[in-house]
Specification:
Elements lengths: L16 E7 L18 E5 L3 H4 L1 H4 L7 E4 L28 E2 L2 E2 L2
Antiparallel strand pairs: 1-2, 1-3, 4-5
Length: 105
């Protein structure tokens, strides 16, 4: 698969690295609006599978939602851009994406 690259008309931000992950054991994240104010999570490397990184979580055979969050800076040249594309490279099964508490996809 071909991946986007930086060009004179395209600036990319690679968000790979350390994120925060929170298991939604009771499936209450949506109701409690975790997308607006994520609870403190556990450091996790992204992209990667949580069950490969944490044996203690894997032992519970968890099959629910896991919330990932991270802060990042947006380039100044993006100000006023009509379209910004988000490419999620390692979501499994289903993903919902929020940016600053707003549903993106």
């Amino acid at each position: 698969m071909l991946y986007p690259i930086d060009t004179p008309t395209r600036t990319r931000i690679d968000l790979s690295g350390i994120w925060q992950a929170v298991f939604d054991w009771d499936e209450k994240g949506l109701e409690e609006k975790w997308f607006e104010n994520p609870p403190q999570g556990r450091d996790i490397a992204v992209p990667a599978s949580w069950n490969d990184q944490f044996q203690d979580w894997r032992a519970h055979n968890f099959v629910g939602s896991v919330w990932y969050s991270r802060e990042f800076c947006v380039p100044a040249e993006w100000d006023g851009k009509k379209n910004v594309f988000v490419r999620v490279g390692s979501a499994m099964y289903h993903a919902t994406v929020w940016v600053n508490g707003k549903l993106v996809c």
